[in-house]
Amino acid sequence: MNKASCLLAAAVAIALSSCATLVPASTEVAPAIPAQWPATRADSGAATVEVADIGWRDFFSDPRLQSLIDQSLANNRDLRVAVLNVEKARAQYRIQRADRVPAIAAQGQMTRSGGDTPVTEQFSANLGVVEFELDLFGRVRNLSQAALQQYFAQAANRRSAQLSLVAEVANAWLTLGADSEQLAIARATLATYEDSLRLTEARHQLGDASSLELSQTRTLVETARTDVARFSGQVAQDRNALVLLAGGPIDDGLLPGGEINQVAAVRALPGNVPGEVLLRRPDVMAAEHTLLSANANIGAARAAFFPSISLTGSVGSASSALSGLFDGGTRAWSFIPKLTVPIFQGGKLRANLGVATADRDIALAQYEKAIQSGFREAADALALNDSLDAQLASQQALVAAADQAQRLSQARYDAGLDSFLTLLDARRTAYTARQSLVSTQLAQQSNQVALYKVLGGGWHERG
Fold first, then answer.
1. Measured distance CA(340)–CA(139) in Å, rounded
2. How far is 386 from 396, CA to CA, in rounded Å?
C-alpha cells in the first residue's frame, strides 16, 4: 500500500467513526405522581410569568434582605465549592473530548546499539499521531457525551445550591426578625409585670393583697424573665447563622428591626401553574443529566465488546549521524494501524456493562425520586398557602380580642368586680396570643419562601 492509499484509508475510517452508537434508544421514566396539583384558591394578584423566571431581586422586596442575599452569593463557601465543582467538571469534559481528535506530537530519538557487532547510532525526528482510536462503535464519543452530561449536572447543582442559599438566607433573616420581636414582646411584658409586682407588694404590705396574689404575680414576672433570657439566646444564635450564610461579618443596618414584614413582592404561585414547572427545578435537571450520562456510559460499555482500531503514523527524518539528520535523502514516514479484538477478558467486559446498567437504573430511580420529592414539597407548600393566610387572619383577631379582654379584666379587677385569678388568666392569654401571632407570621412568610424555592425560582436573575 502506497502513502496516498494509506492516507485515504485513514480519512475514510475517521469519517465512519461517528456513524455508530450503542446507547439505549430510550429510558422510560415513571415518577408516579398525580396529574393535578392539590386544589388551591387562585390568587388574583398572582404573577403571570413563570416562577423560575422571577429573579430573587424581583421576589424579595426588602432592600436589606436583598443586600444580605447579594453578600451571601458572593462570599458563601458552600456556593463557592459548587462553582468550583462546575469548573472541575468542565475541565474533565474537555479532557474526555480531546480523545475524539488526533493528538499530534513531535518526537526526537537517539538509538545506540551494539554487542558483538560494532556500536551503531541512529537519530530520528518525527511529527505524527500516536494511538488514535477510530471510534467505529461510538465508545469514545459516548464517554465524551457522559462527561458533558456530568458537566451539565454540576452546573444544575450549582444553580440548586444558589437557590437553597437564597432561601436559607431569607428564612434565617425572617427567623431573626421573629425572635427579635418575641424578645421585644417578652421585655415589654416583663416591664409591665414588674410594675404590677411592685404595686402588689405595696398592697400586700398594707394588707390589701393576699400572699397568693403576690406569689401569682411573681410567677408572671419570672415566666417573662425566662422568656427574655431564652429569646436573647435565640437572637444571638440567629445572628451567628446569618454570619455563616453570608460568609463574613454583617452590617447591623442589614438586620431586621424586630419585625416580620411581607418579604415577597409578588405571590410565589399563580393560580394556574402547570405541574411541568417541576422539570425546571435545578435539582430535577441535575438528576436528568446524571441519567443521560449513565445512559451514555452503557453505550461505551457495549462498544468495548467490539474490535477497536487505532492508528499511529508519523513523518520526519532519520539519519545515522546527528549532523546529517535533516540532509537530503533522510526523509522517513510510518503508518501503523492496530486492530484489537477482545477474545477472553475473564468476564471483565460483561461486568463493566453490568455496572453501567446498574448505574443507569440508580440514576433513573434518583431522577424519579427527585420529581416525586419536588411534587411533594410543592404540594405541602400549596396546602399551607391558604391555610396559613386564614390562620394569620384568625390569630390577628385573637390578639385583638385578648388585648380587649385584658383591658376589661384589669378594669373590673380595679373596680373590685373580678378576682385576681381572672385577671391573671387574661394576662396569660394576651401574652400567649401575641407570641403565637409572631410564630404564625413567621410560618406564613417562610412558606412563601419555600413555595418560591420548590417551584424552581430564586436562581435565575436578570440583572
1. 14
2. 16
Cα angle 265, 268, 269; round to 5: 140
Q: In this structure, is residue 55 part of a structural domain? A: yes
Distances in Å between the Cα of 170 and the Cα atoms of 51, 380, 423 are: 17, 19, 39
The backbone torsions φ and ψ at residue 109, rounded to the nearest 5 degrees and listed phi first, read -150, 140
Asked if the model's pLDDT at residue 272 lies above 70, the reply is no
What angle (nearest 5°) sits at the alpha carbon of residue 188, between those of residues 186 and 190?
65
* Residue 129 maps to a domain: no
Residue appearing with cell numbers 411581607: 262
Q: What burial letters (b/e) apply to 53-84, b meaning 16+ CB within 10 Å?
A: ebbbebbbebebbeebbbbbbeebeebeebee
Q: What does the pLDDT look like over 279-323, one tens digit per residue?
A: 788 899 999 999 999 999 998 888 888 888 888 888 878 777 766
Q: How far apart are CA 195 and CA 324, in angstroms?
A: 109
Domain count, the chain: 1
Q: How many CA atoms does the CB half-sphere of 6 hold within 13 Å?
A: 13
Is 70 exceeded by the pLDDT of residue 26? no
The answer to whether residue 287 sits within a structural domain is: yes
112: left (phi over 0), alpha (psi -120 to 50) or beta: beta
Tell me if 370 sits within 8 A of 284, measured CB to CB. yes
Structural domain of 40:
30-104+136-306+369-454
φ, ψ at 268 (rounded to 5°):
-70, -25
Please report, for the domain that includes residue 390, its CATH number: 1.20.1600.10
Tell me, what DSSP letter sits at residue 330? -
**pLDDT tens digits, residue range 360-411?**
999 999 999 998 888 888 888 888 888 888 999 999 999 999 999 999 998 9
49 pLDDT band, cuts 50/70/90, is: low
Residue 2 belongs to a domain = no
3-state SS of the chain: helix, strand, coil percent to 5?
A: 65, 10, 25
Q: Where are the alpha helices (DSSP H) in 76-138?
A: 77-97
pLDDT for position 351: 93
Kindly report, residue by residue over 82-137, the tens digit of the pLDDT. 999 999 999 988 888 888 888 888 877 778 777 767 777 777 778 888 888 888 88
Contacts for 380 with CB less than 8 Å, ≥ 6 apart: none
- Cα(212)–Cα(170) distance, integer angstroms: 47
How far is residue 155's CA from residue 234's CA, in Å, rounded to a whole number? 36
pLDDT of residue 173: 94
Grid coordinates belonging to 420: 385576681
What residue type is assigned to position 224 of the chain?
A: A
Say how many C-beta atoms besides its own lie within 10 A of residue 338's C-beta.
11
